[in-house]
Write a structure and sequence with these properties.
The chain is an alpha+beta fold. The protein has two domains: 3-235, Distorted Sandwich (Beta-galactosidase, Chain A, domain 5), CATH 2.70.98; 241-544, Aldolase class I (TIM Barrel, Alpha-Beta Barrel). Helix content is 22%, strand content 29%. The strands form nine sheets. The chain has a nine-stranded antiparallel sheet. A six-stranded parallel sheet has the order 20-23-27-28-29-30. A hairpin with an 8-residue loop joins β14 (156-163) and β15. The chain starts with a strand and ends in a 5-residue tail after the last strand. Residues 1-16 form the signal peptide. It is a multi-pass membrane protein. It is found in: Membrane. Belongs to the RNase K family. InterPro entries: GH (IPR017853), RNase_K (IPR026770).
Length: 577
């Protein structure tokens, strides 16, 4: 069955192929092994999005000697300009001893043709992919049958289509997951775009359902992303309260991550404890919080976290004492993936992956509450930075095979943060982690750039966050550009001898206009106080706009028209006075 969804000038052809993988074979509506046996109409009301009406496609699945009805639902909404596609697999699980890869899908509904539909069809696209909110492998091009839009299902994110003849300033369609973000994917098979459960999942439980959204706006790419984000936040009842009140977003801070002068490096003749205290006392800036990066805790197998507590060689007097010596300044604390030999597995329920040397809390006990609560009470934790999200997901067999584990892990972390009263920053997040944050209001921010050290060493334009910021802001997260230097040269830094910051003013400006954290990482003696103070008030309040800077629509069109080669940098933002 074919359904053509007309969305103003843009047309997305939904082929509505429905397919399921079970018992080591495909059942598909294409070859009548999953025959369509009925169609129905229905209507109802969603508590967040309001009234809907839908067409139901009923298929008959016979496998392992059992017949079940599988239902595909195509739903239209009264309150939002979108169509959502829902698949209910029926009252029997889908199992298979041989799983597909994590870049494939094992259920398909819906699917879309990637092709030009007529001679004057001039559609462009861009899509998010890979870590840092999809920043690392984002790409753009022409919507045509030869385009490779999805390069990795695991790393894929929302797809934005637009009319090139309107310079991306008119009709826009956004395709994205609408539920089960950690377990479902967009996938490309030849010139077909397919949505469904990640192929590597070992089984799909009975009565499982998933959904994706096709959202339309006539207002150009930037406004379309905001409207889509508003609809997604509304669907999940996501509050903006925690983002708006996050001290690490609203005030000047200091970071010690990869790019900071003190990243795995101390002041001459000082240990880390004395260095950090010296930073808090001797930099003449209204710093309202300090971040401690991966150098402060114990590591185990595969360089994962063995124990998230201060190393005695780093903080000989203990972190609570250091916190008091820094006048109880709020602390941001980094964490990475859990090692397979983590000490916490002796007390709490962890799933271990010996092959990859990693582990993960199953999240059915008090682990997260105990971990975050102790840090908040004893040494001033206000923001928990969960880094290495991509590796914890991609290089960890259980998150690729257990259909609920990824969501359970992140939501349990978020619920504990809510109970304790701390916020969360995502770092190295795939688009699926970002979308999962729709259900976790304590995730207030996310890194949208590669590490600043890469810019210092290789002059990579790490400051170019104008596209990834669009996604972060849409779903309610403040985009974080990463640490920066306020001086061009800082001899003695733990990087290449040629490392330097060519345009410090640009770094400070981009960070300020990002609406996310603003965090210098200079050596004490190289901090340019006058330059940094242009970003904030005397007490450190960041003078930020209402919206983050993002690439203007016409340059997005140029990016796609020129097959993914960026033609320049021109950004816009908005402030209300």
């Amino acid at each position: 069955m074919h359904l053509v969804v007309f969305v103003a000038i843009l047309i997305v052809e939904c082929r509505c192929r429905t397919a399921l993988y079970a018992d080591e074979r495909w059942y598909s509506s294409d070859d009548d092994s999953l025959p369509l046996i009925d169609t129905r109409l229905d209507q109802g009301n969603d508590e967040n999005l309001g009234k809907w009406n839908e067409t139901q496609l009923i298929y008959s699945l016979v496998h392992s000697g059992i017949q079940v009805n599988v239902t595909g639902r195509i739903r239209q909404w009264s309150s939002i300009s979108a169509v959502t596609f829902h698949l209910d697999i029926g009252n029997e699980p889908l199992t298979s001893s041989n799983s597909l890869s994590m870049d494939e899908v094992r259920t398909v509904f819906p699917s879309f043709n990637i092709e030009q539909m007529y001679s004057d069809d001039h559609r462009g696209y861009f899509t998010y992919a890979d870590m840092m909110m999809g920043e690392v492998n984002k790409h753009a091009g022409i919507w045509e049958s030869s385009s490779k839009i999805i390069k990795s299902g695991m790393k894929a994110g929302p797809i934005v289509l637009f009319d090139l003849t309107e310079r991306a300033q008119g009709d826009v369609v956004i395709l994205s997951s609408f539920s089960h973000f950690m377990a479902t994917s967009l996938n490309q098979r030849e010139n077909m775009l397919e949505y469904g459960v990640m192929g590597s999942m070992s089984s799909v439980p009975a009565n499982y359902n998933h959904s994706m959204i096709v959202f339309y706006s006539p207002h150009g790419v930037n406004e379309a992303m905001r409207e889509w984000g508003q609809s997604m936040r509304r669907a999940f009842n996501r509050t903006m309260e925690h983002r708006l009140n996050d001290i690490t977003i609203n005030y000047l801070g200091y970071y010690t991550d990869n790019g900071d002068y003190y990243y795995y490096h101390t002041e001459t003749g000082m240990n880390y404890e004395e260095t950090l205290v010296s930073v808090s006392r001797n930099i003449s800036l209204p710093i309202q919080y300090i971040q401690i990066d991966s150098w402060w805790y114990y590591k185990g197998n595969r360089d994962g976290v063995k124990e998230w507590s201060p190393r005695l060689d780093i903080f000989p007097d203990g972190l609570p004492v250091v916190h008091r010596r820094m006048n109880n300044i709020p602390i941001v604390a980094h964490n990475r993936h859990w090692a397979s030999d983590t000490v916490y597995s002796k007390t709490y329920a962890f799933v271990i992956d010996p092959l990859h040397g990693k582990s993960l809390p199953i999240s059915n006990d008090s682990f997260w509450i105990d971990l975050l609560g102790e840090a908040s009470r004893n040494w001033g934790l206000v923001l928990y930075e969960q880094d290495w999200l991509n590796l914890q997901t991609i290089e960890f067999t259980p998150t690729r095979t257990d259909i609920d584990l990824g969501q359970r892990w992140l939501t349990a972390m978020g619920k504990a943060a809510e109970q304790v009263g701390v916020n969360i920053q995502y770092c190295m997040s795939l688009p699926r982690h970002a979308l999962q944050a729709l259900e976790i209001p304590r995730v207030t921010q996310a890194r949208v750039s590669v590490d600043y050290a890469i810019h210092l060493d290789e002059r990579v334009p790490q400051w170019n966050i104008s596209v990834s910021s669009m996604l972060a802001d849409a779903i309610g997260l403040a985009p974080y550009k990463d640490v920066f230097w306020s001086s061009s040269n800082e001899p003695g830094a733990p990087y290449r001898k040629t490392s330097m910051e060519p345009v410090p003013d640009r770094e400070i400006l981009i960070a300020t206009l990002s609406t996310g954290p603003v965090t210098p990482g200079d050596a004490i003696s190289y901090t340019n106080v006058n330059r940094i103070m242009r970003c904030c008030s005397e007490i450190g309040t960041i003078l930020k706009p209402d919206r983050p800077i993002t690439m203007i629509n016409s340059l997005i069109a140029d990016w796609a028209q020129n097959k993914g080669v960026v033609q320049g940098e021109l950004y816009s933002t908005r402030s209300s006075l």
